[in-house]
Amino acid sequence: MPFVAFRAVKPSRDVVGVLSNDWYTLRMEKVAVVVDGTDPPVVRVRGLRMRYGATDVLRGIDLDVHAGELVTLLGPNGAGKSTTIEILEGFRERSAGEVTVLGADPARADERWRADVGMVLQSWRDHGKWRVRELLRHLGAHYARFGTPARPRPADADDLLALVGLADHADQRIATLSGGQRRRLDVAIGIVGRPRLLFLDEPTAGFDPEARRDFHDLVHRLTDLESTTVLLTTHDLAEAERLADRILILADGRIVADGSADQLARQAAGRTEVRWSRGGDRFVHSTEDAVAFLRELLASPGPEVAELEVRRASLEDTYMAMVRRHEDPAAPRTPEEVPA
Predict the structure, then answer these.
(1) For residue range 219-251, what is the model confidence (pLDDT) as tens digits?
(2) What span, in angstroms and rounded, lies between the C-alpha atoms of 84 and 290?
(3) Strand-pair partners of 230
(4) Which of 250, 214, 212, 256 has the alpha carbon at shortest distance from 231?
(5) CA 314-315-320 angle, 5° bins
(6) How far is CA 323 from CA 91, 176, 191, 313, in A?
(7) CB-CB contact of 198 with 191 (8 Å)
(8) For residue 131, which of 95, 180, 166, 102 has the smallest C-alpha distance?
(9) Which of 107, 128, 136, 221 would staple 157 via disulfide (CB 3.0–4.6 Å)?
(10) What is the DSSP string of 194-208?
């Protein structure tokens, strides 16, 4: 039975995609991501372990990511996020476990496999003397021999520069770009080969709010129009909630939670907090069934209910509760159990 996850997308204007060298116009409202259990996952991990000396960094990770999914990896520093991503990218040998990415072991994959994988890393590899368009065309040329009729490669450099907001800087030397502009170029470099799988490591670091919104729209275009699978690491919880079909939380070398933002909130804190005022007095009540409680409250006799507020645990509440639970077993298990 296929699993269907809905991703709500509400950009402020029409979304224009150019990655297949054709122009598309799409007003995105709600996109269904269908995961068919009969298709092999793009990423499959079983029992992944990593040890540095006597220290276990990864302690038996199991993970599936399916085609077209946008999965976000969250976790505190030292939880194992970077190590996990480096193993999936083929940059680091694992200590134990099975890892398959796009049908191959990343540690032994060939050049054709690498052409199907795009990466936007945190660190900048400087090419300061190159001009922006020149570098993008140079790097894109590597992918030409791996193109197919269904997925021609590379993407057009000028189209990509327009897509990431660098069209006016195409002939500028990279050394003269601002930090945010260099980050936009990083994104263009990561997708110039039209990858089937894209790794994004803190991709919006240094972006202003408008650039971040444009980048979020771009990522949704990749998944919805290009069927690109995306694995994103970020410390920005709002970004994770806006972008992800699924959120994975790592703590102490293990995946401790896997689900949508709403699903994780229900796991971490099944109760909803209701606040209201009545007759000049203020009230707070915690309930597992907010709808039933509100129906009863509003139907009860007495002064009119005012200043009504219903609050379910946020992703930040959920994240903090789950990380605390696994790093300190004696800690409160839900946000409601944390003393005010």
Answers:
(1) 888 888 888 999 999 888 888 888 999 999 998
(2) 39
(3) 70, 198
(4) 250
(5) 100
(6) 27, 41, 33, 15
(7) yes
(8) 166
(9) 136
(10) --SEEEEESTTTT--
